[in-house]
Design goal:
The complex is a heterotrimer.
Chain A lengths: L5 H7 L8 H26 L7 H11 L2 H28 L7 H27 L1
Helix pairs in contact in A: 2-4, 4-5
Chain B lengths: L1 H24 L8 H9 L1 H27 L5 H33 L1
Chain C lengths: L2 E8 L7 E8 L6 H11 L19 E4 L2 E4 L14 E4 L6 E3 L2 E2 L2 H10 L33 H5 L1 H5 L6 H12 L6 H8 L13 H5 L6 H21 L4
Parallel strand pairs in C: 1-5
Antiparallel strand pairs in C: 1-2, 3-4, 3-5, 6-7
Helix pairs in contact in C: 2-5, 5-6, 5-8
Protein name (chain A): Succinate dehydrogenase 2 membrane subunit SdhC
GO molecular function, one term (chain A): metal ion binding
InterPro entries (chain A): SdhC_prok, SQR/QFR_C/D, Succ_DH_cytb556, SuccDH_FuR_B_TM-su
Chain lengths: 129, 109, 239
């Protein structure tokens, strides 16, 4: 406790050695959380184009329909879904509800995340295509 | 803090779903043109819930940032400044968002 | 009789720790504690490790076995293959004293702060003298204070001020049966950014607990209690 240097403590929560579903779920929650915060900033920054008038925005919209951007949208939805579904799981567990089923709930969250992401990805490419 | 994170998180389940569906999935082509954004935000109910979404998502995001930064071994003194800084940042983000939405809305009038 | 390979973390504070291989012959019915004791007895008397009861009652022999928190005394060798080394390291998130030994006093101090002393009345009757050197008997039922949960908890890695799963579970148990104890003090202790609210529900405490304490559920119940208390204060006009 007192001997661990600060950098080591800071990286402690990333260490998955010996950990199981719960630890993995926690790590993924953090990583998607960090990713989503970064996305939020980018998103708000990009929206400033709206203040620059129709040309700026509509040019961006055209670019955002490129396959690369659409794939990134898929990644975004993957992150959102995991964070949201595991958020529900963690809220219940945090109140002591369903603790014996936490590992199964985690795999359920994973399965649902992948399934809905696949559906959303299909929708994205058909809507934009 | 845990309670607020959970509460805003659950609100976001609803607000973000609405945000995603109405901004992308029911829109032809998935993304609105400039003219459509102006028309969309001109609706008072839409405007209100998008602002509500902005406030809740900002709070949730910055509380999450604080939780992670606390894990870097930040003490109570630094935490006080961190909280002030993040509150200021949050107000800045919300101010920017409200200004932008209001400005866009005014284009439709 | 199979020969087992153990890879033990060796070293002293100040030096650089290293992993060293030891070979020891034991029947498959033996336990990991037997192997470590045999290494100590026959190969290196300077090996530091803690042990006492050999039956998961004292909580002294907690280590990390292949990265996972276990009690050596109930870790059977037959779980492993003689072909591959069994890696044994000290618990994390405690001050390291050398080899497999850590200083558990930070946890013990916190447990003492909770003041749990739920024991059978007949153990504390006045006519029964306490053993020499023992001031009072304290025993917290299921929890054997082994510290495995603290080592497994990712929040413990990050926040040294965090009360930790064992202590929070102890608070929850005390609140359930306060026997005239000061529940307000316990609630204040738990209702803190470094208390019950600090848990991130990684569930690793309950996953490694060798004694069915289930700290994760206890923390959840504690939070429900704290929320109810707040609600009550709120309705009761800030009493």
């Amino acid at each position: 406790m007192k001997e661990a240097p600060r950098w080591k403590r800071a990286s402690g929560w990333v260490d998955l050695r010996g950990r199981r579903e719960g630890g993995l779920a926690f790590l993924l929650m953090r990583l998607t959380g960090i990713g989503l915060v970064i996305y939020l900033f980018i998103h708000l920054y990009v929206l400033r184009l709206l203040a620059q008038g129709p040309e700026a925005w509509d040019a961006f919209i055209a670019m955002a329909k490129s396959p690369l951007f659409l794939a990134l949208d898929g990644l975004l939805i993957l992150g959102i879904l995991y964070h949201a579904l595991n958020g529900v799981r963690v809220t219940l567990l945090g109140l002591g509800i369903g603790v014996p089923h936490q590992a199964r709930l985690f795999w359920g969250v994973m399965a649902l995340t992948l399934l809905v992401t696949a559906i959303a990805a299909y929708a994205i490419f058909t809507i934009a295509g | 803090m845990w309670i607020w994170q959970a509460f805003t998180g659950l609100l976001l389940l609803i607000l973000l779903t609405l945000h995603m569906v109405f901004n992308h999935f029911v829109v032809e082509g998935g993304l609105r043109t400039y003219r459509d954004v102006v028309a969309y935000l001109s609706h008072p109910v839409v405007f209100t819930w998008e602002i509500l979404f902005l406030v809740v998502v900002t709070a949730h995001a910055l509380m999450g940032v604080r939780a992670i930064l606390l894990d870097l071994g930040i003490g109570p003194g630094t935490d006080r400044w961190l909280k002030r800084g993040l509150t200021l940042l949050g107000l800045g983000i919300i101010g920017y968002g409200v200004w932008l939405s209001w400005w866009i809305r005014s284009r439709g009038a | 009789m199979p020969t087992w390979q153990l890879r033990l973390l060796r070293g002293r504070p100040g030096g650089s720790p290293r992993l060293e291989i030891y070979r020891v012959e034991l029947p498959a019915e033996a336990y990991l504690i037997d192997a470590v004791e045999k290494i100590w007895a026959e190969q290196d008397r300077s090996l530091l490790f803690r042990h006492a009861c050999h039956h998961a009652s004292c909580g002294a022999c907690g280590v990390r076995v292949n990265g996972r928190e276990r009690l050596m005394c109930i870790t059977p060798l037959r779980e492993f293959s003689p072909d591959r080394p069994i890696q044994v390291e000290p618990l994390r998130h405690f001050p390291w004293l050398g080899d497999l030994l850590v200083d558990v006093s930070p946890m013990m101090r916190r447990m003492a702060e909770v003041g749990f002393a739920i024991v059978r009345q007949d153990e504390l009757t006045a006519d029964r003298p306490l053993p020499e050197g023992i001031e009072r008997i304290t025993r917290f039922e299921d929890c054997i204070e082994c510290g495995l949960c603290l080592s497994a908890c990712p929040v413990m890695a990050a926040d040294e001020a965090y009360l930790g799963p064992a202590t929070l579970a102890a608070i929850e148990r005390m609140l359930k049966e306060p026997r005239g104890g000061d529940t307000a003090r316990l609630l204040t202790l738990a209702d803190d950014p470094h208390g019950a609210w600090r848990c991130h529900s990684a569930m690793e405490c309950t996953a490694v607990c060798p004694s069915n304490v289930d700290p994760a559920s206890a923390i959840g119940r504690l939070r429900r209690r704290l929320i109810a208390e707040r609600f009550r204060r709120w309705i009761g006009g800030g009493r």
